[in-house]
Design goal:
This protein has one helix at about 5-20, and strands at about 25-30, 40-45, 50-55, 60-70, 75-80, 85, 90-95, 100-105, 115-125, 130-140. About 10% of the residues lie in helices and about 50% in strands. The protein has a single domain (about 20-140), classed as PCu(A)C copper chaperone (Immunoglobulin-like, Sandwich). The chain is globular.
């Protein structure tokens, strides 16, 4: 064996490479008013293999939960869910009025333009836990979707 150190390094990295992480697209957080103690995090998630979003955490909030919006008896209600399936090869969208991550017990108001760190807690088919760090930009209070960057005409 001519390069045992290189082989050992590759062997050590293989488990990390084998863990198919979730692709995260367009992560954003809705800004808050000065007295507001909660807000939502939104993004598109895509995994190459079946995964489950089982939670999240963020240093800006005391409580972080995965939520969904449902209509019960004609009334829209928000509720925490224990997990959200991420089917292989499909995009699962976390958006206003649907699935999202709630940041509650905020430690400070969030202003447009700030960056928020969020760690996604994921579980694979073998119930192995994985963490994935995401940086989400804070969008204005009235934002309903991420701002798209367009080229100049």
């Amino acid at each position: 064996m001519r390069h045992p150190i290189a082989l050992l390094a590759l062997a050590a990295l293989f488990p990390l490479l084998a863990q198919a992480q979730v692709n995260v697209h367009e992560p954003w957080v809705r800004a808050t008013a000065s007295s507001q103690k909660a807000t939502g995090v939104f993004m598109k998630l895509e995994s190459s293999r079946p995964m489950t979003l089982v939670g999240a955490r963020s240093p800006v909030a005391g409580v972080v939960e995965v939520h969904e919006m449902v209509t019960e008896a004609g009334v829209m209600k928000m509720r925490a869910i224990p997990k959200l399936a991420l089917p292989a090869g499909k995009v699962t969208e976390l958006r206003p009025g649907s699935y999202h991550i709630m940041l509650m017990d905020l430690k400070a108001p969030l202003a447009a333009g700030e960056k928020v760190a969020v760690t996604l807690l994921l579980e694979d088919e073998q119930q192995q836990r994985h963490e994935q760090n995401v940086t989400a930009e804070v969008r204005p209070l009235n934002a309903s979707a991420p701002a798209h960057q367009h080229g100049r005409h």
